[in-house]
Amino acid sequence: MDRGEEIVTGVYLVGGPNASSSKDCLVYAVDFGSEAVLIDTGAGGSEEAILTNMMGLGLDPRLLKTVILTHNHIDHIGGATFFKDRYGCRLIAHELDVPAMEAGDPVVTAADWYGIPAPRLTIDHQVSGLTNSLKFGPETLELIHTPGHTPGSLGVLLNRASQLILFGQDIHGPFMPQFKSNLVDYQKSMEYLISLSPDILCEGHYGIFHGRNKVKAFIENQVRANC
User: Fold this and answer.
1) pTM for the whole thing?
2) What percentage of the chain reaches a pLDDT higher than 90?
3) In the chain, fewer beta carbons within 10 Å around the N or the C end?
């Protein structure tokens, strides 16, 4: 099993099928010096493996203060309560995906697909609108509303090392009525992400893409395949 990797300075892959559990999405962490941010948490049950990976990469888990949940599916939110309880992390999500998280809806969260009980989460900060900014010292994480896969899907943008990094979880879908997916919204969201010209894409299941052309090609291929 892989133990994660550093993508650029202070940006890490710390969880996923080859790093923590076969049920996990790809989990990313960003080190801001005095604070660290986790982007998604996996399906739950693999939190200690994620922590081990962080420590193996030189990132102190005690710095974790924020967890961004990019959408409401169990493979992304299942470990959220663990990190909140252990480290006091605030949980951030888009308001359109919060009701299913707070209700522990087994269908909308896809928990029934995975055979995992859906947790009932308390979201500390609900974002709305197209963009929201989170400041961490001199740096900023931009949260971009990218509806399509779910109504409240979020992309996360970071400028670091002269590169624009996009954490675009589940750009590939799937798109299902029970997830309240919307392909018209999805196409518009992907067109917007392409217009930003990200240099690196950290996707939720398909891995990491380096180079603007590769990022653009991956997103365009997913749009063609689904629309």
Assistant:
1) 0.97
2) 97
3) N
